[in-house]
Task: inverse folding
DNA sequence: AATTAAAACGAACGCTCGTTCGTTATTGAC
DNA sequence: GTCAATAACGAACGAGCGTTCGTTTTAATT
């Protein structure tokens, strides 16, 4: 059960996926390149960084829909016209953030899952990957979680599909564990809902965990303990 | 552990606290009486019902800040002027909902807790009460959870205080259980965070639970099982 | 039927929003 | 140093916002 400690920790995760500060912004720019009017990459990435960070800050304060582009202009020190060269429209600004997350998710933990491993290993891997990536991109995931209401139907659907996908993934692993006899019988739906909610809590209530000085490794240990106690046969 | 089943179920809860449809709206009117310009109680209650329900519906669709009072006017069939006789202002409309929840909470489960009972009993009572009341007032709690950003500082503080209160309550019960030796040693902070998040999930993701035909009694049983497995000495 | 108080109405007001676009400043190649 | 190309600028626009208030309708009392 604890075979992953030290062997698959946060530091190793960060060094094995493209999630350094530079790489993240580079990836964000690449994903949205064709929508952005500014052509010089170095300039564009720097300004996007400023804009997105300011968006997160203001959205935390008053919510995305109450954040005006004049607020954003003031916070970034850019003019209204400049902003529009980067974001296209207010709606597109929100959509760009939302589209980025599944992209990074695939990049970082999409292909790592292996059905030949034991259900416990698969489950732990999924949980760890989830916590690690949301730890690296906490403001992004927090924004996406809080500001789902303002999206076009198509992007809203994309968000729903992604959530469903991860729930099915969880459900399958639990089912496999039951079949192999390593997990006791349980309500697969309720169990995956619980795991999802524990994973979400890490980035939704991040401030509280920071205040209590809980780091992501001990949070993972806690989840694994709770799920283990509940699922594993004794 | 299962002594409460049948003896303290949802039906009994509903009949022992003032939470019938009529009583809820009556209580809401009483709490905000002095802010409302319309004097005839029967008329006021009926219109408030219409307004609040429409607010919940529109907020679910596009979020409170994107809901205009013209939307609300159309949805309720009332004129702008009439609306203002009931809500005072858009901000006050949101605040009235937020203020109502701790009020109902106190009314329904505030005084039922008894420190002489066993920690297990106290914990189960708290969990059951929480699920039951959020089951009865699901749209209210959902609205309050999603739309915290638009509040005045004072009401935001009130919301924070209330959350802190319930976390301390949980922490104390767990601590008492540890001292009495009925709970194993655990991280009290992480444990209460988990319980809170399980409780919140019931009204935040209500649609998903409805789709899978999970009722509140079986959800409570699930929580008690998970927490029991984790906390109770074997 | 007349009177009066309460409730509902909705056009109008001032303001702020997202967005545009003609102009100015900056950059880099020659 | 010149000159295109690129980026930044910010005043202006129309739409829609929350809110108000003079008027009309409704309801209750006499």
Result:
């Amino acid at each position: 059960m604890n075979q992953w400690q030290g062997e698959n920790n946060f530091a190793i995760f960060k060094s094995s996926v493209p999630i350094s500060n530079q790489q993240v912004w580079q990836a964000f720019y690449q994903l949205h390149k064709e929508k952005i009017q500014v052509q010089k990459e170095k300039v564009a990435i720097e300004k996007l960084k400023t804009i997105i960070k300011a968006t997160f800050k203001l959205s935390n304060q008053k919510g995305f829909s109450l954040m005006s582009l004049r607020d954003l202009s003031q916070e970034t020190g850019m003019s209204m016209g400049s902003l529009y060269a980067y974001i296209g429209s207010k709606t597109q600004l929100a959509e760009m953030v939302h589209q980025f997350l599944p992209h990074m998710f695939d990049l970082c933990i999409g292909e790592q899952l292996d059905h030949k491993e034991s259900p416990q290993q698969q489950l732990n891997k999924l949980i760890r990957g989830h916590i690690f990536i949301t730890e690296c991109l906490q403001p992004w995931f927090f924004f996406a979680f809080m500001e789902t209401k303002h999206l076009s139907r198509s992007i809203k659907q994309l968000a729903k599909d992604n959530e469903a996908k991860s729930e099915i993934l969880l459900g399958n692993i639990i089912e496999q564990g039951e079949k192999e006899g390593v997990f006791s019988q349980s309500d697969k739906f309720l169990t995956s809902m619980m795991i999802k909610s524990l994973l979400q809590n890490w980035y939704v209530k991040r401030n509280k965990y920071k205040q209590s000085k809980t780091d992501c490794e001990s949070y993972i240990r806690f989840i694994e303990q709770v799920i283990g106690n509940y699922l594993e046969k004794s």
In short: The two ends of chain A are 13 Å apart (CA to CA). The longest helix of chain A spans residues 153-179.
